Amino acid sequence: MLTDYLGALCGEEADSVQVRRTFYAPGIVTYDCRALSAAPAPLTPLAAGRLELLFCREGRLELERWEGGALSVGAGEVLLLSSAARLTELTAALRPFRCTAALIREEEARPVLRQFCALLPGLPDNLAWMEELLDRHRGIMVLRDESWNRSAHAALDRLAPDQDGTYFLFKLLELIYLLRCGVQCPGGVPEGRYYDRYQEETVRRVHDYICAHPERRLTIQELARQFQLSPTLLKECFRQLYGDPVHTYLQRYRLQTAAHLLATTGDSITEISAAVGYTGVSRFSAAFKKQHRMTPSQYRRLHRGKNV
User: Fold this and answer.
1) Distance, CA of 306 to CA of 308 (rounded, Å)
2) What is the C-alpha to C-alpha distance for residues 32 and 35, in angstroms, rounded to an integer?
3) Which of 44, 119, 269, 293 is most buried, with most CB under 10 Å away?
4) 18 and 68 share a domain?
Protein backbone atom coordinates (compact mmCIF):
# COMPACT_ATOMS: atom_id res chain seq x y z
CA MET A 1 0.00 0.00 0.00
CA LEU A 2 2.03 3.01 1.26
CA THR A 3 5.37 1.23 0.82
CA ASP A 4 4.37 0.14 -2.71
CA TYR A 5 3.98 3.82 -3.53
CA LEU A 6 7.28 4.77 -1.87
CA GLY A 7 9.05 1.86 -3.58
CA ALA A 8 7.83 3.02 -6.99
CA LEU A 9 9.47 6.41 -6.34
CA CYS A 10 12.90 4.91 -5.58
CA GLY A 11 15.39 5.74 -8.30
CA GLU A 12 13.24 8.40 -9.93
CA GLU A 13 15.07 11.57 -10.87
CA ALA A 14 12.95 14.20 -9.13
CA ASP A 15 14.12 17.15 -7.04
CA SER A 16 10.73 17.41 -5.35
CA VAL A 17 10.60 13.82 -4.04
CA GLN A 18 13.47 11.77 -2.62
CA VAL A 19 13.03 8.21 -1.33
CA ARG A 20 15.70 5.92 0.13
CA ARG A 21 14.93 2.21 0.56
CA THR A 22 16.96 -0.06 2.83
CA PHE A 23 16.72 -3.82 3.47
CA TYR A 24 17.82 -4.04 7.11
CA ALA A 25 16.59 -7.55 7.89
CA PRO A 26 14.81 -10.42 6.09
CA GLY A 27 11.17 -9.48 5.62
CA ILE A 28 11.62 -5.91 6.90
CA VAL A 29 12.15 -2.99 4.51
CA THR A 30 12.41 0.66 5.58
CA TYR A 31 11.84 3.77 3.50
CA ASP A 32 12.85 7.37 4.15
CA CYS A 33 10.86 9.89 2.12
CA ARG A 34 11.24 13.65 1.68
CA ALA A 35 8.79 15.54 -0.54
CA LEU A 36 8.55 19.22 -1.46
CA SER A 37 5.52 18.43 -3.62
CA ALA A 38 3.68 15.30 -4.60
CA ALA A 39 0.58 14.75 -6.69
CA PRO A 40 -2.24 12.63 -5.22
CA ALA A 41 -1.52 8.94 -5.84
CA PRO A 42 -3.78 5.85 -5.89
CA LEU A 43 -3.13 3.07 -3.38
CA THR A 44 -3.30 -0.69 -3.87
CA PRO A 45 -4.54 -3.02 -1.09
CA LEU A 46 -2.01 -4.48 1.32
CA ALA A 47 -1.49 -8.24 0.95
CA ALA A 48 -2.41 -10.59 3.81
CA GLY A 49 0.41 -11.30 6.26
CA ARG A 50 1.91 -7.84 5.81
CA LEU A 51 1.96 -4.87 8.17
CA GLU A 52 2.98 -1.27 7.49
CA LEU A 53 4.14 1.36 9.95
CA LEU A 54 4.67 4.99 9.00
CA PHE A 55 6.20 7.62 11.29
CA CYS A 56 5.35 11.12 10.05
CA ARG A 57 8.34 13.32 10.83
CA GLU A 58 7.27 16.57 9.15
CA GLY A 59 4.22 17.88 7.33
CA ARG A 60 0.94 16.00 7.03
CA LEU A 61 -0.29 13.03 5.01
CA GLU A 62 -3.94 12.75 3.98
CA LEU A 63 -5.41 9.37 3.05
CA GLU A 64 -8.76 8.80 1.36
CA ARG A 65 -10.82 5.96 2.82
CA TRP A 66 -12.70 3.56 0.56
CA GLU A 67 -15.93 3.95 2.56
CA GLY A 68 -15.70 7.76 2.35
CA GLY A 69 -13.98 10.46 4.35
CA ALA A 70 -10.30 11.05 4.95
CA LEU A 71 -7.66 10.05 7.48
CA SER A 72 -5.00 12.60 8.39
CA VAL A 73 -1.57 11.79 9.90
CA GLY A 74 0.51 14.71 11.15
CA ALA A 75 4.05 15.29 12.36
CA GLY A 76 4.99 13.06 15.30
CA GLU A 77 2.16 10.58 14.69
CA VAL A 78 2.50 6.89 13.79
CA LEU A 79 0.20 5.12 11.34
CA LEU A 80 -0.22 1.33 11.46
CA LEU A 81 -1.94 -0.63 8.68
CA SER A 82 -2.92 -4.25 8.09
CA SER A 83 -4.47 -5.91 5.04
CA ALA A 84 -7.94 -5.01 6.39
CA ALA A 85 -7.28 -1.31 5.68
CA ARG A 86 -9.21 0.13 2.76
CA LEU A 87 -7.43 3.26 1.57
CA THR A 88 -7.68 4.53 -1.99
CA GLU A 89 -5.48 7.64 -2.33
CA LEU A 90 -2.74 9.54 -0.54
CA THR A 91 -1.80 13.22 -0.67
CA ALA A 92 0.99 15.13 1.04
CA ALA A 93 -1.48 17.74 2.27
CA LEU A 94 1.04 19.81 4.25
CA ARG A 95 4.50 20.18 2.74
CA PRO A 96 7.42 19.88 3.01
CA PHE A 97 6.59 16.31 4.02
CA ARG A 98 8.91 13.71 5.49
CA CYS A 99 8.27 10.22 6.79
CA THR A 100 10.05 7.01 7.71
CA ALA A 101 8.06 3.86 6.92
CA ALA A 102 8.50 0.11 7.25
CA LEU A 103 6.97 -2.92 5.57
CA ILE A 104 6.97 -6.17 7.58
CA ARG A 105 6.37 -9.41 5.70
CA GLU A 106 5.53 -11.51 8.74
CA GLU A 107 6.49 -14.93 7.40
CA GLU A 108 9.91 -13.82 6.10
CA ALA A 109 10.61 -11.70 9.18
CA ARG A 110 9.73 -14.48 11.65
CA PRO A 111 13.39 -15.52 12.36
CA VAL A 112 14.31 -11.93 13.26
CA LEU A 113 11.16 -11.50 15.32
CA ARG A 114 11.84 -14.80 17.09
CA GLN A 115 15.31 -13.60 18.14
CA PHE A 116 13.85 -10.32 19.38
CA CYS A 117 10.98 -12.04 21.22
CA ALA A 118 13.37 -14.47 22.92
CA LEU A 119 14.73 -11.51 24.90
CA LEU A 120 11.27 -10.47 26.10
CA PRO A 121 9.33 -13.13 28.01
CA GLY A 122 5.64 -13.25 27.19
CA LEU A 123 5.93 -11.76 23.71
CA PRO A 124 4.74 -14.15 20.94
CA ASP A 125 7.27 -14.93 18.20
CA ASN A 126 4.81 -13.88 15.47
CA LEU A 127 2.67 -10.83 14.72
CA ALA A 128 -0.70 -12.55 14.30
CA TRP A 129 -1.89 -10.83 17.49
CA MET A 130 -0.95 -7.42 16.07
CA GLU A 131 -2.81 -8.09 12.83
CA GLU A 132 -5.87 -9.11 14.88
CA LEU A 133 -5.55 -5.90 16.92
CA LEU A 134 -5.48 -3.78 13.77
CA ASP A 135 -8.33 -5.72 12.18
CA ARG A 136 -10.54 -4.80 15.14
CA HIS A 137 -10.01 -1.19 14.06
CA ARG A 138 -10.71 -1.89 10.37
CA GLY A 139 -7.01 -2.28 9.69
CA ILE A 140 -6.01 1.25 10.70
CA MET A 141 -4.60 2.74 13.90
CA VAL A 142 -2.99 6.12 14.57
CA LEU A 143 -0.72 6.43 17.63
CA ARG A 144 -0.36 9.83 19.24
CA ASP A 145 1.70 9.01 22.34
CA GLU A 146 3.62 12.29 22.56
CA SER A 147 6.40 11.06 24.87
CA TRP A 148 7.34 8.10 22.62
CA ASN A 149 7.01 10.12 19.42
CA ARG A 150 9.03 13.03 20.76
CA SER A 151 11.99 10.89 21.81
CA ALA A 152 12.00 8.99 18.49
CA HIS A 153 11.77 12.19 16.49
CA ALA A 154 14.61 13.88 18.40
CA ALA A 155 16.94 10.91 17.95
CA LEU A 156 16.18 10.47 14.23
CA ASP A 157 16.95 14.15 13.60
CA ARG A 158 20.41 13.76 15.14
CA LEU A 159 21.46 10.62 13.26
CA ALA A 160 23.24 10.45 9.92
CA PRO A 161 21.23 9.16 6.92
CA ASP A 162 23.00 5.79 7.03
CA GLN A 163 22.12 5.37 10.73
CA ASP A 164 18.51 6.47 11.06
CA GLY A 165 17.09 3.38 9.31
CA THR A 166 18.74 1.06 11.85
CA TYR A 167 17.47 3.17 14.71
CA PHE A 168 13.97 3.25 13.22
CA LEU A 169 14.00 -0.56 13.06
CA PHE A 170 14.96 -0.63 16.74
CA LYS A 171 12.13 1.79 17.63
CA LEU A 172 9.73 -0.24 15.50
CA LEU A 173 10.47 -3.36 17.56
CA GLU A 174 10.13 -1.32 20.74
CA LEU A 175 6.75 -0.08 19.58
CA ILE A 176 5.57 -3.63 18.90
CA TYR A 177 6.59 -4.57 22.44
CA LEU A 178 4.77 -1.56 23.94
CA LEU A 179 1.61 -2.37 22.00
CA ARG A 180 1.68 -5.95 23.25
CA CYS A 181 2.15 -4.78 26.83
CA GLY A 182 -0.72 -2.30 26.50
CA VAL A 183 1.48 0.73 27.27
CA GLN A 184 0.25 2.56 24.19
CA CYS A 185 -3.43 3.50 24.10
CA PRO A 186 -4.10 4.03 20.39
CA GLY A 187 -7.90 3.89 20.34
CA GLY A 188 -8.12 3.34 16.59
CA VAL A 189 -9.68 5.67 14.03
CA PRO A 190 -12.91 7.37 15.13
CA GLU A 191 -15.85 6.82 12.85
CA GLY A 192 -17.04 10.41 13.07
CA ARG A 193 -20.09 11.92 11.46
CA TYR A 194 -21.00 11.42 7.82
CA TYR A 195 -20.70 14.43 5.51
CA ASP A 196 -21.98 14.47 1.96
CA ARG A 197 -19.72 15.09 -1.02
CA TYR A 198 -20.70 18.77 -1.37
CA GLN A 199 -19.89 19.49 2.28
CA GLU A 200 -16.53 17.72 2.09
CA GLU A 201 -15.58 19.48 -1.16
CA THR A 202 -16.53 22.86 0.33
CA VAL A 203 -14.43 22.25 3.44
CA ARG A 204 -11.53 21.21 1.20
CA ARG A 205 -11.88 24.57 -0.58
CA VAL A 206 -11.72 26.27 2.82
CA HIS A 207 -8.53 24.32 3.51
CA ASP A 208 -6.99 25.38 0.19
CA TYR A 209 -8.00 28.99 0.81
CA ILE A 210 -6.43 29.31 4.26
CA CYS A 211 -3.25 27.61 3.04
CA ALA A 212 -3.06 30.07 0.12
CA HIS A 213 -3.38 33.05 2.52
CA PRO A 214 -1.26 32.23 5.61
CA GLU A 215 -0.69 35.95 6.22
CA ARG A 216 -4.39 36.69 6.82
CA ARG A 217 -6.07 36.68 10.23
CA LEU A 218 -9.11 34.52 9.49
CA THR A 219 -11.97 33.60 11.81
CA ILE A 220 -14.35 30.65 11.68
CA GLN A 221 -17.28 33.04 11.29
CA GLU A 222 -15.69 34.79 8.30
CA LEU A 223 -14.83 31.51 6.59
CA ALA A 224 -18.31 30.09 7.26
CA ARG A 225 -19.97 33.14 5.71
CA GLN A 226 -17.63 33.19 2.72
CA PHE A 227 -18.13 29.50 1.91
CA GLN A 228 -21.80 29.35 2.98
CA LEU A 229 -21.39 26.76 5.74
CA SER A 230 -22.49 26.75 9.34
CA PRO A 231 -19.58 27.43 11.73
CA THR A 232 -20.28 24.17 13.58
CA LEU A 233 -20.26 22.07 10.40
CA LEU A 234 -17.07 23.78 9.21
CA LYS A 235 -15.25 23.08 12.48
CA GLU A 236 -16.40 19.46 12.82
CA CYS A 237 -15.92 18.47 9.17
CA PHE A 238 -12.50 20.17 8.98
CA ARG A 239 -11.31 18.33 12.06
CA GLN A 240 -12.56 15.00 10.69
CA LEU A 241 -10.85 15.55 7.32
CA TYR A 242 -7.55 17.02 8.53
CA GLY A 243 -7.18 15.76 12.10
CA ASP A 244 -6.92 19.17 13.81
CA PRO A 245 -9.13 22.20 14.52
CA VAL A 246 -8.90 24.91 11.86
CA HIS A 247 -6.67 27.28 13.84
CA THR A 248 -4.35 24.51 15.11
CA TYR A 249 -3.90 23.27 11.54
CA LEU A 250 -3.33 26.80 10.22
CA GLN A 251 -0.72 27.59 12.86
CA ARG A 252 1.18 24.41 12.03
CA TYR A 253 0.96 25.20 8.32
CA ARG A 254 2.24 28.74 8.91
CA LEU A 255 5.25 27.46 10.83
CA GLN A 256 5.97 24.78 8.21
CA THR A 257 5.82 27.47 5.51
CA ALA A 258 8.14 29.66 7.59
CA ALA A 259 10.62 26.77 7.92
CA HIS A 260 10.63 26.33 4.15
CA LEU A 261 11.21 30.07 3.59
CA LEU A 262 14.04 30.13 6.14
CA ALA A 263 15.79 27.29 4.35
CA THR A 264 15.26 28.38 0.75
CA THR A 265 15.16 32.21 0.69
CA GLY A 266 17.20 35.14 1.91
CA ASP A 267 14.18 36.93 3.37
CA SER A 268 14.67 38.36 6.83
CA ILE A 269 13.01 36.75 9.84
CA THR A 270 10.83 39.87 10.15
CA GLU A 271 9.64 39.49 6.55
CA ILE A 272 8.98 35.78 6.99
CA SER A 273 7.06 36.25 10.23
CA ALA A 274 4.80 38.81 8.51
CA ALA A 275 4.37 36.56 5.46
CA VAL A 276 2.94 33.78 7.62
CA GLY A 277 0.58 35.95 9.65
CA TYR A 278 2.53 36.95 12.78
CA THR A 279 2.39 40.59 13.87
CA GLY A 280 5.59 40.43 15.91
CA VAL A 281 8.93 38.63 15.59
CA SER A 282 9.00 37.65 19.27
CA ARG A 283 5.65 35.84 19.07
CA PHE A 284 6.71 34.17 15.82
CA SER A 285 10.05 33.05 17.30
CA ALA A 286 8.37 31.59 20.40
CA ALA A 287 5.83 29.66 18.31
CA PHE A 288 8.51 28.48 15.88
CA LYS A 289 10.77 27.23 18.68
CA LYS A 290 7.87 25.35 20.28
CA GLN A 291 7.15 23.45 17.05
CA HIS A 292 10.66 22.96 15.64
CA ARG A 293 12.65 22.85 18.91
CA MET A 294 15.03 25.57 17.73
CA THR A 295 14.88 29.28 16.96
CA PRO A 296 14.33 30.56 13.40
CA SER A 297 18.01 31.61 13.21
CA GLN A 298 19.20 28.19 14.35
CA TYR A 299 16.90 26.47 11.86
CA ARG A 300 18.24 28.65 9.02
CA ARG A 301 21.86 27.89 9.89
CA LEU A 302 21.14 24.16 10.07
CA HIS A 303 19.04 23.82 6.91
CA ARG A 304 20.21 26.62 4.60
CA GLY A 305 21.23 25.20 1.25
CA LYS A 306 19.82 21.71 1.94
CA ASN A 307 17.10 20.21 -0.25
CA VAL A 308 14.41 20.36 2.46
Assistant:
1) 6
2) 10
3) 269
4) yes
